[in-house]
Amino acid sequence: MEKAMHGAHGISYEVYSMNHDARMEVEKKRERDYIKSQRMVADLDRKVHS
Q1: Per-residue b/e over 10-48, b at no fewer than 16 CB within 10 Å?
Q2: Which of 13, 37, 41, 44 has the highest CB neighbour count under 10 A?
Q3: Is the pTM of this model over 0.70?
Q4: How many other CB atoms are there within 10 angstroms of residue 5's CB atom?
Q5: Helix, strand or coil for residue 49?
Q6: What angle do CA 47, 33, 19 make, to 5 degrees?
Q7: Nearest CA-CA partner of 30 in 2, 22, 18, 3
């Protein structure tokens, strides 16, 4: 998990778990990435069904 956290977000799990501001930044990025992926899926779905 440590390597995945650092690779994906650039911080260690220790920092993530102990630093509220760092945790909030990671969670905001996760949310932005999720929304972006949902938009991509919707766009592809429209293209496939048009």
Answers
A1: eeeeebbeeeeebeeebeeeeeeeeeeeeeeeeeeeeee
A2: 13
A3: yes
A4: 17
A5: coil
A6: 175
A7: 22
